[in-house]
């Protein structure tokens, strides 16, 4: 059986220090035939010039599409326009600051060839710093490949998939069978995993195929800029649950589309709506208990909303609230250390 065709969705924005290495890694894969769709989101630095230099110097067999300059539109809309310009059966996410290993595309193509029912694949990654030093030798710690499908008895929206969006790859149906993602949904990885679970199974692979760079200016939770005040650290920590909150609109739109188009049963859609609201409610409580300017009135309203919509049991709710509100009771500087330095929340 032949390998499926690959489209690399290469997104760049203000990554002049890293984009040359990142693009060279994508263009020197050991897969003979693939395409690279490059979307630079109106970078104000030299990122686009570096990309143009690399494209002009390239002599390999990959097909390169560098999208024309356009106004800054954000990650989601930039991803959407790259998808619209692609022709591959499989989309592989790539960022202008990460480094794909030489075998990445071939291994992904082989995986999707061998697992026709799987709609998303997340490889392992090595976490590196700004200059390539290893921060974590591996992101996932299991061995082999874990497969996940939607289980109506689960209370986890993502069905236990602790996914790393930087390593994601997806069948084209994940994006072509749904409308373009709205620009308010945060990153593309959340909508992609929900859509993948609606359409089939998802895999988390222990094979390391990427160096995921954390350099202090990432949009992901790996970003931990130095020399921030404790208030700024709390604002930064609050950005994670805030991002989870904004996903709700896009998730509900996707669920409505899936039900209308017959991509999933009404029972599956109804359960996922419950879990979407549960994540939104938890994120609301976390956000207000993290942000330095949050008021107890807002926390009380968020707790009331969580208590009403969450489908979880009494003891789970009580433990969650105790843990979350307990962090709010910590003095601000200590709360910043706990939330910014040691956890997403």
Commentary on this structure:
The model has no long low-confidence stretch (mean pLDDT 92). The chain starts with 5 loop residues before the first strand and ends with a helix. It has two domains: 6-213, Alpha-Beta Complex (Spore Coat Polysaccharide Biosynthesis Protein SpsA, Chain A); 230-341, no CATH class. Helix 8 (266-290) packs antiparallel against helix 9 (296-309) and helix 8 (266-290) runs parallel beside helix 10 (314-328). The protein is globular. The chain has helices at residues 19-27, 47-57, 75-84, 104-114, 173-176, 189-199, 230-260, 266-290, 296-309, 314-328, 332-341, and strands at residues 6-12, 35-40, 63-66, 90-95, 99-100, 118-128, 134-136, 145-148, 168-171, 201-213. The protein is an alpha/beta fold and 345 residues long. Strands 1, 2, 3, 4, 5, 6, 7, 8, 9 and 10 form a ten-stranded mixed beta sheet that branches. The protein is built from eleven helices and ten strands. Helix content is 44%, strand content 17%.
- Specify the helix fraction band: 40-55%
Strand content: 15-25%
CATH topology of the largest domain: Spore Coat Polysaccharide Biosynthesis Protein SpsA, Chain A
Give the termini separation.
45 Å
CATH class call of the largest domain: Alpha Beta
Q: Note the overall shape.
A: globular
Report the radius of gyration as a whole number of Å: 20 Å
Per CATH, the architecture of the largest domain is Alpha-Beta Complex
Q: Secondary-structure element sequence?
A: EHEHEHEEHEEEEHHEHHHHH
| Domain unit count | 2
Query: Average pLDDT, to the nearest integer?
Result: 92
Count of separate DSSP helical elements: 11
Alpha-beta content class: alpha/beta
Unreliable parts: none
- Number of β-strand runs: 10
User: Could you give me the name of the CATH homologous superfamily of the largest domain?
Assistant: Spore Coat Polysaccharide Biosynthesis Protein SpsA, Chain A
Largest sheet: 10 strands, mixed
């Amino acid at each position: 059986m032949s390998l499926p065709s690959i489209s690399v969705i290469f997104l760049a924005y203000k990554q002049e220090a890293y984009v040359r290495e990142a693009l060279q890694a994508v263009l020197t894969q050991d897969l003979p035939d693939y395409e690279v769709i490059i979307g630079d989101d109106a970078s104000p630095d030299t990122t686009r010039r570096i990309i143009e230099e690399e494209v002009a110097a390239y002599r390999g067999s990959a097909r390169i599409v560098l999208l024309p300059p356009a106004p800054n539109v954000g990650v989601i809309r930039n991803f959407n326009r790259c998808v619209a310009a692609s022709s591959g059966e499989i989309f592989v996410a790539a960022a202008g600051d990460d480094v794909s290993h030489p075998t990445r595309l071939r291994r992904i193509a082989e995986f999707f060839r061998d697992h026709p029912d799987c709609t998303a694949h997340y490889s392992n990654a090595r976490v590196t710093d700004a200059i390539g030093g290893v921060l974590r030798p591996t992101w996932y710690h299991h061995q082999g490949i874990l497969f996940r499908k939607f289980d109506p008895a689960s209370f986890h929206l993502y069905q236990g998939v602790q996914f790393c969006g930087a390593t994601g790859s997806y069948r084209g149906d994940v994006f072509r069978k749904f409308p373009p993602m709205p620009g308010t949904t945060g990153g593309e990885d959340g909508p992609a995993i929900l859509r993948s679970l609606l359409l089939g199974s998802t895999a988390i692979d222990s094979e390391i195929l990427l160096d995921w760079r954390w350099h202090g200016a990432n949009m992901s939770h790996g970003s931990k800029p130095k020399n921030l005040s404790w208030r700024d650290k709390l604002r930064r920590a609050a950005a994670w649950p805030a991002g989870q909150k904004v996903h709700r609109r896009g998730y509900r739109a996707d669920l409505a589309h899936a039900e209308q188009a017959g991509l999933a049963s009404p029972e599956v859609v109804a359960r996922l709506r419950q879990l979407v609201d549960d994540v939104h409610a938890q994120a609301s409580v976390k956000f207000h208990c993290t942000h330095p300017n949050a008021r107890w009135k807002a926390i009380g309203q968020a707790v009331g909303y969580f208590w009403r919509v969450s489908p979880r049991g009494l003891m789970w709710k009580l433990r969650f609230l105790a843990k979350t509100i307990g962090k709010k009771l910590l003095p601000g500087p200590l709360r910043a250390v706990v939330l910014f330095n040691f956890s997403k929340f």
